[in-house]
Model the fold of this input.
Amino acid sequence: MKKILSIILHDFRKVTSSVVAIVVIVALCIIPCLYSWFNILSNWDPYEPEATGNIPIAVVNEDEGTDLLGLRINIGEKVKAALEGNDMIGWTFPDSKEEAVEGVYAGDYYAALIVPPDFSTDTLSMISDELENPELEYYENEKKNAVAATITDKAKGALQNEINKTVIEVIAKYVTEAASAAQSAGLDPADMFGDLGNTMSDLSEKLDYGTAIAEAAAGLTKSADSLLKVSDDLIGSAQNTLSEGDKLLGSAKDSLPEISSGQSVAETVREEADMISSDVKKLKSELSNVRNDMKAYNKYVDKKLGARKKLIEEIRSTAGRISRNLSKLGLTKLSGLFGGIRDKLSDVLDKLGKLKTATKSTWSETQNTIDSITGDLASARKKAKTALDNAKGDLDSKIKKAAGDVRKVVSETRKTLTDAYGGLDTLSGTLSGYEKTLSDLEKGINETNASILSMQQGLQTLSGLFTKLSESDALKDINHLISDGSDVIAEHLASPVRMDKEEIYPVSNNGSAMASFYTVLAQWIGAVLAAVLIRVSIKRKKQFGDLKLHERFFGRYRLFLTVGLIQALIVSLGDLLYVGIQCLHLVKFVLASCITGIVFSMIIYALVFALDNLGLALGVIILIVQVAGSGGLFPVEVLPEPFAAMYPFMPFRYAMDAMRECVAGTYGNTYITCLGILGLFFVGAVIFGLLLHYPALRINKMIEESKSKSDIML
Done:
């Protein structure tokens, strides 16, 4: 212990007797601290409007607008106006797209947003036949600055939110204005639903007449069939029989319902074909959008693919059902088209089941699968459009032909009866030929009667539904909502959900959040600089006598310890008093910095004491590894696997965690635990330096001799 104290006193006298030594020591204590303070200040609020508002991003609106409900709407202008009042980014508004894009290439702008001419039209296409996704053009200069790219990503988020909000506000405003206009015109929703209910009820009653007519027609066909069977018995009174038969068939012709149009069936088929075409087009567009972006594709697989499989399954089921029903009606062409759609969608469903999260090695194969799926979807959509185009003509012609054939049969039968007055044998043969036709006619009329009854039940259900709607409290609430005004509804729909944010361990600014990292980093740099500028080994051993290993180790370390503590006090007090970081526990923060300075100075000192120049190089390497992998800049969870594996063994981690507890608030025994682990690093460094000193002498000597031979290295 006496010799250790003599070494300490010797070092103190040498330092204080040399002006250069004093200047070097002072520089060692201050320069690392400046590094910490400047970095904390530069990171104080990099993502707040005061900073990001100076980053220029160009916005050019080329939107030509569109008409909705007789009003001219230009969503691009509204987006531009909203951005003019947004101070988050330094929005600028060049005169043309060419000027904006050229500015991005030249570095005058970090990014450029172009609103295309058809933006309003595509945005409001949801109320037209063809749904189009509106697209914006966004140009970004990622070369200009790495951090700026992160800030422009934030700008993109702000843009998207602003645009979504504007679009919803516009649509909600005009829809509610239309509803208000309807009310002003006397179209009260409750009255409308009430009238619909009454109309459905009246229509249901009138269908009773249709049922009676169908039953009468069926009865006439039975009578005609009976006439065929008893014709031989009535041969003696042929004139009366023929006269009655003529009356019966004439009554049958007059009683048959007019089937002039298959409008309801045709419209149903067209609506289903149109819906299938629209849904298939949407899925094809989504897959095409992610086909060239693996990251977007993987996100699509995780969040949307399951729902799209269910959609294709429903469309396939619908197509199959329509195909079967059309086949029963004898509409083979339309039935074949919908059957083809069903088969194509079965192939699509099988291929969608093969889509999984892609990697670089499987991306090419995944793209081929996507191409195959989009090809099948295009084929299915083509068949749907063909069905849509042919539905009305095909259905109407078939149904009209069927009705005409029935009437023709009855008319020809009457003509045959009239001609048969000249011969009963001819009458008997002719009626026998139509026996099967009358049987089919009876069957068809019975099916028609069943359809009328089913329709009647449906109308009765609709009547009850509309009546309940007209009397419901929900409809009254909707009326009340509309009466509040379009602006209120638009504002609510634009932001329907508000998030109540409760901050846990809040930090007032980004600089305070980064203070622990830059403080710890400055202290490690200070320890390395001390090992570079201060000799670790004792040059004049004779004046102290024979020194043991531990005496040389601890004797010289006292100087490094003093420098480390001074650095810790200056940097921590400067963080608090000069920079003004947030800190809830001031004394604990200074204490954590001092313990960090002691531990770091020992680690670097022990490395250099044992390994000389090699130890100094290891100190720099450990610094680089900790800067990248200690979780100071990025969460350790996003770092490569080797860094995550080394993370528990990095001193930076525990020093930063201890200081964070002081900055934002303590949890349990985290602070004490971190300082305790730093103490273990201190003990480990002492053991390392003492145990490896003698074994490493030979390799240190070899390295020193090799350096001397180069004539260029110190």
The beta strands are 56-61, 66-68, 71-73, 90-92, 111-115, 137-140. The CA atoms of residues 111 and 140 lie 4 Å apart. Confidence is low (pLDDT under 50) at residues 234-238, 255-263.
